[in-house]
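Hey L., structure's done. Input below.
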Amino acid sequence: MPETGLRFQCQPGCIRCCDVRGFVYLSESDLVRAAEYTGLTPAAFEAKYVYRTKHLRRLRKPADRQCPFLEQGGCSIHPAKPTQCRLFPFWPELVADRGLWNDAGRRCPGIGQGELIQIGTAIEIASEMERAYPTFYGLD
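Output:
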């Protein structure tokens, strides 16, 4: 009988999910939380670290890495990291498609590890992404 859930456990010292080509998007609450953690006002944090389009905010990418907060030992703002980072790999598109989940598992050694997370719980976790970034999911 196939499993009715997903397995994931972040692996100590691993930063592979952070070192993937792409962008780190920010909700308004992500921006406020990261600003507070870094000791900056939201406006100062945004001026220093954020690129804003008409509908989205994302972290500016330094020339030498994917994220300004990615360091050799991990995320320098780990306790306040953006929703997108905190929820990986429980993104709606990965949770909904076992093939995409397995593809992500080829890059992420934590996928397939740990306790079984019931599919309903995984979907609930993934729904936080939809609430944080409704533009991505056609919800706004």
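Residues 119-132 form the longest helix (14 residues). The mean pLDDT is 93.

-- N.
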